[in-house]
């Protein structure tokens, strides 16, 4: 399968991608734990069927020291023992925030209470923004049919400005 368009080769597409990347940098630099960030990006990308982003985020997480077991079990985190209560709350928020069309109320009060229990306001702002941004990135990549497999950790490191 070939991508429909190379957004990075298009002047406007590259400008938009750079802005999205810069928002992601602000989230990355927050106090939301890096492991949680990686797990959320991976899980949302799995839900949305974004091969490019699953490739990207699983490889970045592994390069950052995340275990293969946790990466493999992210899709079935509810039936796994390898995630903390805080990570489980973040993953629940990520799933509910991603499946808005499936859950008419959006994020349920129970999930929100668990997130509140484990994260401060800055971390919650980062988490909510992370869910929104990874969903946007997934949708862009799925629409243009960017494929997974060729990502190398850190290959977008010089993209900000």
UniProtKB/TrEMBL annotation:
UniProt domain Carboxymuconolactone decarboxylase-like: residue ranges: 27-96
UniProt keyword terms in alphabetical order: Oxidoreductase, Peroxidase
SUPFAM superfamilies recorded: AhpD-like (SSF69118)
Annotated InterPro entries: AhpD-like, AhpD_core, CMD-like
UniProt KW Oxidoreductase keyword: yes
GO molecular function terms listed in the Swiss-Prot or TrEMBL record: peroxiredoxin activity
A family per Pfam: CMD
Recorded superkingdom: Bacteria
Coiled-coil residues: none
Keyword Phosphoprotein: no
Official protein name in the record: Alkylhydroperoxidase AhpD family core domain-containing protein
Species assigned in the record: Nonomuraea pusilla
